[in-house]
Amino acid sequence: MRKRIAIKDHYQEIKLINQRCITILVIMILLIILLISRLTFLQLMNHDHFTTLSQKNWLDLVPLEPTRGLIYDRNGVLLAENIPIYSLDIIPNKIINMPKTLSEIAKIIPISDDDIAQFHRELKQHRRFDEVTLKLKLSEDEVARFSEMQYRFPGVKVKARLMRHYPFVNSLSHVLGYVGRINIDELQEIDATNYSATNYIGKLGIEKYYEDELHGSVGYEQAENDASGQALRVLNQIKPVPGKNLYLTLDSKLQTAVEQALEGHRGAVVAIQPATGQILAMVSEPSYDPNSFVTGINNTDFQALQDSPDRPLYNRALRGLYPFGSTIKPFIALGGLDSGVASPDATIYDPGWYKLPTSSHIFHDHKRGGHGIINITRAIISSCDTYFFDLAHRLGILRLDAILTKFGFGQATGVDLEEELIGTVASPTWKRKVKGISWYEGDTLNSGIGQGFMNVTPLELATGVTVLANRGKRMVPHLLLAEQEPGKSIEMQKSTHLAPYDVHDPNTWNIVIKAMQGVLTAPGGTGFHFGKIGPYTVAAKTGTAQNHTIKVYNLNMSEDHEDQSKLPERLRDNSLFIAFAPVENPQIAIAVIVENYAAASQVARKILDYYLIGPPLVFPIAPVNKTKTQGTSVNVIH
Amino acid sequence: MSFTSAIKYRLTKPEGSGSGYRSFWQYIHIDVPLLICILLLISAGLIILYSASSQDLPKIEQQAMHIGLGFALMVFFAQIKPTTYQRWALWIYLLGIILLVAVLGVGHIGKGAERWLNLGFIRFQPAEMMKLALPMFLAWHYHRIHLPLSMSAIIFSAIAIFIPVLLTAKQPDLSTALLLVIAGGSVLLLAGLSWYLIIGLLGLGALSAPMIWYLLHDYQRQRVLTFLNPERDPLGAGYHIIQSKIAIGSGGLFGKGWLNGTQSHLQFLPEHTTDFIFAVCGEEFGLMGNLILIFIFMAIIGRGLYITMHAQDTFNRLLAGSLTLTFFVSFFVNMGMVTGILPVAGLPLPLVSYGGSSMMTLMVSFGILMSIQTHRKLLTT
After folding, report:
1. Could you tell me if A20 lies within 8 Å of chain B, comparing CB atoms?
2. Contact B321 A36 (CB under 8 A)
3. What per-residue confidence (pLDDT) applies to A1?
4. Chain B contacts of A21, Cβ < 8 Å?
5. What confidence score (pLDDT) does residue B114 get?
């Protein structure tokens, strides 16, 4: 019985199990079809997508920073270089406990609070696997000490890099400017690709103006990375193109001589080669160390510079707006003679004051008792105010302004620096617009002696002097002498001409220039401080100008030197001196402004002596292709 | 005797034709089609592992030793008559339960779970043994009773499955516990468990999901969450599956070529010699490589089902079917995990992934399959 049932069950069971097997096989095949569809989806339909992701995983395009171009002076002296420094860099995502790591590092290498604050700022701006600098400029000793302990700090490393360095320190900072870390505003402006490996950008001066030339082009390195972001090998490399080397028109020795001549007084000097417009020296004193801005100046030091009453950050040569003082007189004299309003032989009588026929106001001459009967030559030599009150009155403000404009005043000089300010050639329209009041005839008289609303930057003034020196030929003042692409020859830059100051009678120039020579040589000349003329001829004009701030004292406009010593130092008059030499073949034109101190003549003397008597200066780099078109034009007006 | 001649032999000698002719292979109890499939799979596995391990020869040697030991076990267990298994099934099961309890007491901790039992000369995972003991025990039980299953038999089976599953899950080794459920459940399934009941049980499982969630370890919850949305934590728990999909997807139709996979060689793909080795295959050999690998796996399944359907009695059929089904589940779950259609379960790819313990179990199960196939003729006499 039991066996029978068992046999019967046996067949049933076979049938049952086999049916189940078939069912299960069908389910399995369905599942495998699902799996294959999934594989097809991943490997065929989305293949490109995943290939991209895969390459993103392991291929890293590392941008390579181009080496910044060097800056030389006209004699090939290095003014801005790149020096290797060691920095301590941290890769954030490899650090487990950042505060602990930092405090451990601080036990080996002194880390300032400023460094830590800066580090935390940059930490926020970088990706987790980017290197962030903790400390720049490690000493060799610090490098050695840290390297010994390196094994304790995975993710921290000493890195060698190039850093901008200005060997002349304070001497050229106002011209060269400096580079600094790219800030958020600059980030919007720059070509992000080209700057992908660059941390520094020109902030001021030549470094800023010629940023494109100096920067160069970014290079790339295609590196194979593993999952931890470690570069395993370099697959491909496009080398970065270093920036161009620049040769400036500056003569670093003259620049230093000018600084020494200023003897620590606040002031500015611009020296230009009249025939070319090349700026030989451009000094603004006091100055500052641009190197501290490269590494990132700390707040205390910056505030000290910012708050100093001497204003070392202020580029006086380019941005200082000073009244002309009497240095305006030769310019007006030339315009007056050329327009026929003045004539070389006509004289006036100077009683020591001038009065407008329509007004009772008395305009004093700086010489009490007056110059007596005086012609235009003597008026320049002895800086007769009354003569120029009269001349200004007869010219009228519009003609006077036209003369100044023809010399280039009241316009951008076109110098290859971005920070230039423009002096004021005041007109009735200007006064109404700026001051909101109408023009008085008295304003015209004041303008005639370089006071009142007229002002000028030292650069503009020096540029004006080159026009006198060139007898009307006008050149754009500029700082770039030549460029050199890495590995190629030097390309000279052409000087740019401007519309010349044409006069009806070329002899007019000689009249004014002769008078300017007389300033130093004739009896009664105001340039007696200049001293006895040396082996070269000089045409010059002195000037004294009241400070803007002095107006609160409501003093009149006399150049009363006795009063000066009683005034607080910073309210004393500025002294000015313009000159060019030698007269026959001008090599140098200068404008000197010494703030609150009557020393401009002596300063000018030292500069001219140094430049014209000192060792002859040779331009060592061979001019290669003078007809080459200007790559970076120093064009007329921005 | 070659594969074709073996087939020819099958065709010329009908089933149950007596004890007349026995081939050499039958004499040593080796099933040639199954052996060929296993050899193909293991060779493919070694080729992939060689690349996945970045040509780590000591590792390959180690794996070759596992394979050698596995083959020895397979041959050994193929010699044992199915009737012997049948006789010992209950005792093996009971021993397994005792060892599982023991492992909870004195187990060796590895990877955050107690799985290993150190017997002095060998480290041993009782849960692996249970993968074979459980279906054997159930098959033995069902062989003794009448099919289809009665309610009391179902309840008995549920308890028989539940005890080792619970003990394994407590280690905690959830993926092996899952395979134990599959191993036991597959016997029930083959034994004709009502489809309604299966669907009902699945429904019950879905309903009890929140409770299971509560019982899960933190890392297991992470896996589930990550499966649902890998991008949730691209550098943490989701990293595995994202990188795995990148590896497979970037392989395309023909792959990047052997030894040229960037995902594995540059360490982007985690666990690339063990759980995620299928992604290495996908990256280096493309869709074609994957299809070939899947084909070999399915060939083994096919042979397993053939053995099942031609087995002599209920015990043999149920055991063979269950072993085949469990093998399918273990490779399908792994492939599903690697391709992102199933959660990351921590299961290796059978016979391909680097590792010893799961390979031993598998080779023993193939030995049992071969035993069932090759002892058949003798049994009929």
Report:
1. yes
2. no
3. 38
4. 190, 305, 308-309, 321
5. 54
- Tell me the average pLDDT of chain A: 84
What is the mean pLDDT of the segment spanning B239-244? 85
Name the helix (H) or strand (E) containing A433. helix A428-434
Residue of A nearest to B340 (CA): A38
Chain B contact present for A10, CB below 8 A: yes
Model confidence at A26, pLDDT cuts 50, 70, 90, reads very high
Chain B contact set for A28 (CB, 8 A): 298, 301, 328, 332
Q: Is A582 helix (H, G, I), strand (E, B) or coil?
A: coil
| Contact at CB, A227 and B248, closer than 8 angstroms | no
Cβ-based neighbours of B373, under 8 Å, separated by 6 or more: B31, B34, B307, B310, B311
Q: Is B340 a residue whose pLDDT tops 50? A: yes
Domain boundaries, chain A: 61-248, 252-613
- Which chain B residues touch A46 with a CB distance below 8 Å? 249
3-state secondary structure B187-240: HHHHCCCCHHHHHHHHHHHHHCHHHHHHHCCHHHHHHHHHHHCHHHCCCCCCHH
Per-residue model confidence as pLDDT tens digits over A199-209: 889 999 999 99
- The torsion of the CA quartet A499, A500, A503, A509, rounded to 10 degrees, works out to 160
Under 8 Å between Cβ of A210 and A248: no
Q: Cα A113 to chain center, whole Å?
A: 30
Mean of pLDDT values over A157-164: 86
Would the CB atoms of A58 and B249 count as touching at under 8 Å?
A: no
Rg (CA), chain A: 37
CA A610 to chain centre: 26
Whole-angstrom Cα distance, residue B63 to residue B359? 10
Q: Which amino acid type is present at position B292?
A: I
User: Any idea of the CA torsion for A313, A319, A321, A322, to the nearest 10 degrees?
Assistant: 70
The complex's ipTM works out to: 0.89
Instruction: Tell if the CB–CB gap between A38 and B308 is shorter than 8 Å.
Output: no
Full-prediction pTM beyond 0.80?
no
Q: Is residue B207 over pLDDT 60?
A: yes
Written as six digits, the tokens of A421 are 């300010």
CA A460 to chain centre: 16
Residue type, B75: V
CATH topology of domain A61-248: Penicillin-binding protein 2a (Domain 2) (3.90.1310)
* Minimum CA–CA partner of B303 in chain A: A25
Count how many residues are written for chain B.
381
- For domain A252-613, give the fold: Beta-lactamase (3.40.710)
Q: pLDDT band for position A624 (50/70/90)?
A: very low
d(CA A269, CA A260): 12
- Average of pLDDT values for B317-330? 94
Largest CA distance in chain A: 162
Of all residues in chain B, the one with the smallest CA distance to A40 is B287
Q: What is the pLDDT of residues A532-552, one digit of tens each?
A: 887 889 999 999 887 654 443
The sign of the dihedral angle between the CA atoms of B125, B127, B132, B133 is positive
In SS3 terms, A18-45 reads as: HHHHHHHHHHHHHHHHHHHHHHHHHHHH
Amino acid type, A548: H
N- to C-terminal Cα separation, chain A: 118
